[in-house]
Amino acid sequence: MADQLARNLLTKALPKGMELSHFSVLNHLARVGGERSPAQLADAFHVTRGAMTNTLTKLEWAGHIHIRPDWDDARRKMVSISPSGRRARDLAIEAIAPVVAEVVADVGADKVKAVLPVLRALRQALSGEN
User: Fold this and answer.
1) Which of 15, 38, 52, 107 is most buried, by CB atoms within 10 Å?
2) Residue 62 burial by Cβ neighbours in a 10 Å radius (0-12, 13-18, 19+)
3) Domain count, the chain
4) pLDDT (tens digit, 9 = 90+) per residue, 64-119?
5) Cβ neighbours, 10 Å, residue 32
6) What CA–CA distance (Å, rounded) separates 2 from 64?
């Protein structure tokens, strides 16, 4: 329930036309740097390759990512964030920052700091990272 409420709140704050999945992929690419294959991205987000392909197609159409053939394996593609994608991601962060700040203020910064390690451990356990 909390996850759905948070997603709805963030989606409403995102710039017009940007979906949470778009922001998530752009944010991931900006944080990790370099390129990732669509399969690596699908694995990172625990979605099907078809779902990731759909998201990447929309991001490429918007000019937010570059998709190129993998020079070592022509069957694969590699994805990187474009300058436009970096700007779109930065605008999205600016748009959601006040929403996140308000939630933190309502809940209390100390409570949020206390729960983050628990949520991180839960995510790692559920994703099999342990």
Assistant:
1) 52
2) middle
3) 1
4) 999 999 998 888 999 999 999 999 999 999 999 999 999 999 999 999 999 999 98
5) 13
6) 29
Distance CA 97, CA 34 (A): 25
Q: What is the domain range of residue 6?
A: 2-96
- Residues 34-48: pLDDT tens digits? 999 999 999 999 999
CATH number of the domain where residue 90 is located: 1.10.10.10
SS3 63: coil
Whole-Å CA distances, 27 to 72, 106, 111: 26, 25, 25
Q: Which residue has the tokens 């979906």?
A: 19
Residue 25 identity (one-letter amino acid): V
Phi, psi of 35 (to 5 degrees): -110, 160
- Residue 62 in any domain: the answer is yes
Query: 130 falls in which pLDDT band (50, 70, 90)?
Result: low
Average pLDDT over residues 3-7: 87
Which pTM was predicted?
0.86
